[in-house]
Give the backbone structure.
Amino acid sequence: MDCKTARLLLDFARPQARELVPEEAGALESHLDQCLDCHGLAQGERQLDERLGKAMRQIEVPAGLRDQLLARLEADRGDWYRRRFAHGMRAVAAVAAVLLLGWGAWRWLIESMPAPIDLQTVAAAANHNAAEDPRTKIEESLKAMGVETPLSPHLNYNLLAWPPAKAELPGYPGQKVPMLVFERGGRRARVYLVATKQIPADGPPTVGGATYKLEVLPSEGEPYTFLVVHDGDNLDWLRPPEPPAT
């Protein structure tokens, strides 16, 4: 027990510790035996109480005054206990808030840490992708764009540089169509998929230019026609390999 608490309890221990529970009364007496300052203060107060008691006993006490005083003392003690309880609850709430904050920070740290990478999984997936027919992925990508059409048999899809994407059709700003990009040995070709109904039926299969040429691959009655834009003399490098002779 500290001096502040002991001096507060002295008000309930005068002239005797009847207003205190035994544990508090014992703790107060133990503190007074060890603290000279509080002991002197208690002695002074008790002597004052004795003198006042003698003087008060010589005065006729009005009816009901004792009960009023005891009720007031009981109310004061109740207020003190409530203050101590409220202080304890605030301390508990503060500790709970700190624990909750720490738990939330720990969860955030655990969830934000990237999962470890299994190198064997990466290698296995790469080998699986390499063994898979590239036309399957191309068809899936085109379907995701809303384009369902057989792939042209005149292209080597193993030379696809990156996944299909929508791009602006040259000469037609704002009109985006699916585009495939093929590369091999420094050569590149862009293949645009355009609805066959947009291609003139009597148009030339090849249109020359200063830098780029455009070749129309046979659509064979399919809903989309493949337009190849390239800068080479021919598309032999882009043709699929010939099947082995039997």
In short: The CA atoms of residues 133 and 158 lie 8 Å apart.
